[in-house]
Design brief:
Radius of gyration: 19 Å
CATH class of the largest domain: Alpha Beta
Number of helices: 9
Number of strands: 12
Strand content: 25-35%
Mean pLDDT: 95
Low-confidence stretches: none
Helix content: 25-40%
CATH topology of the largest domain: Ribosomal Protein S5, domain 2
Largest sheet: 8 strands, mixed
């Protein structure tokens, strides 16, 4: 049995560079793992199949589940004979939130199977398997603070984000990633971000400068009714930066001290259910 803690992620910057001929989009993303975790348990069985259970009954448990797809991709790539596995996911990362909860679960499955079957695959190969099932999976396999380019498979390690406190607030609505990119394709124009300046700022490592440069191109055309209110509450509680993560709708704020973060959390929880205080972490997945 393997038990893996799978971390959520936020996007400190997300810009869409172009739409590719294959229908995907070339991206520029600064991604950060944060300490909100799903717990993924992988057990061997004797039925020769793949089964999956989940604490969130709204999540499909068949072949459409990305963690299920990750298991299939692992066996296809490794050529290992599947004697049977069961995957159990205890969800804490909200769904359709822009926090890569599904990708984190898929990453956890790939890493767990690599250990269970003693395949000892190099990191590059594990990420190749991950990219087959989701653009964010290679990042979730590695985690920490990284630059992600193209469709998520080109990754470069960046200096750790300076220690801080992060408040995540997910409005009640969900945002489909596929619909978000379709909306981008329909807009006439958008303002692109200063990606080169953000890279220099990340290397310099000043937290306030990083926060001043954060941005997400999706905020220009994804409507999140509570976003302005959330950002105002974060600002009132001394956040030094706030931004939407992924295709939304989760908004995160960065705080220099725990007291301000906890005060912000308490105020947001008066009207919202999915509010968390966490810190940056250096790994996407951790074995228990």
């Amino acid at each position: 049995m393997m038990i893996v803690k799978a971390a959520a992620k936020i996007n400190l910057m997300l810009d869409i560079l172009e739409k590719l001929d294959n229908g995907y989009h070339s991206l520029f993303m600064i991604m950060q793992s944060v300490g909100i975790y799903d717990t993924v348990t992988v057990n061997q069985t004797s039925d020769g199949g793949i089964s999956l259970s989940c604490s969130n009954k709204n999540l499909p448990t068949g072949q459409s589940n990305i963690a299920f797809k990750a298991a299939m991709a692992f066996f296809d790539e490794s050529k290992c004979e599947n004697s049977g596995i069961h995957i159990d996911i205890q969800k804490r990362i909200p769904m359709e939130a822009g926090l890569a909860g599904g990708s984190a679960d898929a990453a956890a499955v790939i890493l767990a199977l690599d250990k269970i079957y003693n395949t000892h695959m190099p990191l590059k190969k594990l990420c190749k398997i991950g990219q087959k099932v989701g653009a964010d999976v290679p990042f979730c396999i590695q985690g920490g603070t990284m630059l992600a380019l193209d469709v998520g498979g080109v990754l470069a390690q960046l200096p750790d984000l300076p220690q801080c406190y992060i408040v995540l607030a997910k409005p009640s609505q969900g945002v489909s990633t596929a619909k978000a990119y379709a909306m981008y394709d329909e807009v006439d124009s958008c303002h692109h971000l200063d990606t080169n300046a953000m890279l220099r700022t990340m290397v310099n490592g000043d937290l306030r400068d990083i926060c001043s440069m954060m941005g997400n191109v999706f905020e220009q055309f994804i409507e999140v009714s509570e976003r302005v209110k959330i950002k105002n509450i974060m600002r009132e509680n001394n956040s030094i930066g706030h931004c939407m993560s992924g295709s939304g709708p989760t908004v995160f704020g960065i705080f220099e001290n725990e007291r301000d973060a906890l005060n912000c959390e308490g105020q947001l929880k008066k009207t919202m259910d999915d509010v968390f205080v966490c810190r940056p972490v250096s790994q996407g997945c951790e074995f228990e």
